[in-house]
Every structure is written in C-alpha cells, then in structure tokens.
Amino acid sequence: MAENSKNTKLLSVVLLVAGIAGLVIALYLDFTRSSAAFRGPLLVIGAIAALMGLYFYPTVEHHRSIINFIFLFPLLFAFAVTVIIPLILGIFYSFTDWNGIRLTSFVGFGNYVSMFKDPAFIWSILLTFLFVVFNMVLINIVGFLLALLCTSKMRGVNFFRASYFLPNLIGGIVLGYIWQFVFNNVLIQVTAKWGMVNSVLANTKTAFAAIIVVYVWQYAGYIMLIYVTGLTTVPKDVLEASSIDGADALTTLFRIKIPMIAATITICTFLTLTSAFKQFDVNMALTNGSGSVADFMGSYLTNGTQMIALNIYNTAITKNAYALGQAKAVFFFIVLACVSILQVRISNKKEVEM
Question: What is the mean pLDDT of the chain?
C-alpha cells in the first residue's frame, strides 16, 4: 500500500512539474512572438498535466480543496488569460517603444510624459468627465421617471417597458449612423423652415449635445428596468400605511420609495458612471471625434468631440503608436477604477444615512 502511495505521489509530482513547465514555456514562446506551431497544444497539454498532477496527489486532508480548485480552474484560467495577463503586459508595454509587433528599448515614463503634453488628450479627458456628469444625471432621472410610469396602474405598461428598452438592443455603431442620418437629413429639413440649414453635428458644442441625447436615448431604457425592479420590491403594506396616514404622492416618493431603493440607485449610478466613461461606439459612429476647438493650451484642435476611449483607439490604431496608446489606456484604467471606488463608497454611505 505504501509502495502504491509512493508511486502515485511520484507520478503526481512529475505531472505537476511537467505541466507547469509546459505552461511557462508556452507563455514564454507567445511573449517572444515565436513562430513555433506547438505553442497552443503545449499550453493545453501543460494545463491538463498540471491538473492531473493535482488530482492524483495522495492526500486526504486537502483533496476536497484540490478538487474544488480543479473545477474552478477553467474559469480562473480564462479570467487570467483575458484580463490579468493582458493587464500586466499592457502596463509593461506602456514603458517601452512597442509598435504592436516588437519592442526595441525601454523608454521609462516617456510615454506618460508625452500624453500629458498632448493638448488633444487633455481635451479628451475634460470632455469625458463632462460627458459622464451629464449622463449620470440625465440617464438616472429619465430612467427613474420611466420606471415610475411603468410601475403605475396605467394600461399597456408592458408595451411601454418593451418600447423604452428597445433602443438598448441596437448596437452603438448602428445607432450612431442612424442618428447621424436623422441629424444631417431629417432634422435639417424640419429646421430649414426657421432658417437653420446647418447640421447640429457641424458645430462642436451642438455635436457634443447630440452625443449626449443619443446616449441617453439608448441607455435610459436599460436603467429603467433596474429601477422598475427596485420599485416593485418596495413593500405594499408600507405604501398602504403611508396612504392611510395621509401622505401624498410626492411625500411617498421622496420619504419612502427613494430611501428604500437606495441600493438600486447605487447600482444604477455605478453602471451609468462606468458606461459613460467607456463610451466609444456612438462617439465614433456619430462624429468620429471631429470638431474644432479654436484655442486650447495654445493649440488648434480638430478633435472637439473625441472622448478618451476614441482617443486611445486613434492613437494606437490610426497613428500606429501602440506604446503611447497603451500608456493612455493604463491611465484610463487607473482613473476609472479610482472614480468607481469613490462613487460606490459615497453611495454606500448615503444608503446607511437613508
């Protein structure tokens, strides 16, 4: 029995070491952009060997934990490959002169210094923060009002819920081109009667307002459904008690419904915040970031409606400056993480106060 246990332990150790070695070699070959065709199979075989080594390891005390880890491994592996490893590599590449294929030298914080000297990028940051503020307020107000309408006792409520949510099912690129046609053709024909023959997308300020309108129109229906869920969880006996005590509709709304859906408000605020920060598709399809700014930091800008996500994309893809674009993406990640954490903490504090 002891001999079998010893052999099993030796087999498990060999499989575990061989599997880890295979994983490391496959990842190294991928990192160095090797043309070896066996990188993929080696990665899979290495993962399977490592898992088999863990499974056959002769221990009773921790065997259940090992089995649990094996079942979780596919999810953890996918998360590491698609999120953790790209994040680490992205931070690494931001300190180099990487051109999308290879790197030749480290530049330190040179990319970060360059991006903060770029007036176009600074303008994109300011524009994005302004866009976030407008959308957080407008989407939550519109979504909440629509939710109040869709939780009332009026007839055809389900039809209105489906109608308001429908714009969210349309892709941002398609939506942008549809509204571009509306602004450049339909709206001009209507406003031409009053002497306004220029498209709203021709002016930077009105084009920015148009992006806000389109985004609110698209996203408010999604936020509405979350508010509907929150409002339907408010206990009916509490509402009946407030009605018996003589509370009118506004008092019930501000003193009972809103405080009792504080958690829902936190979720909706977080979703609108992160979604507005990452706005890309509507911005690209509707204006492609175009728009003139006469004098900003001593420069004439032609990206008057370009927000951070689109600026990063144009830097890396259009200008072929992958390392600089990666540095901007790392900065964007840090800003988004900090703002999101701050917003959640503030919202949770207000939940306790309510």
Answer: 85
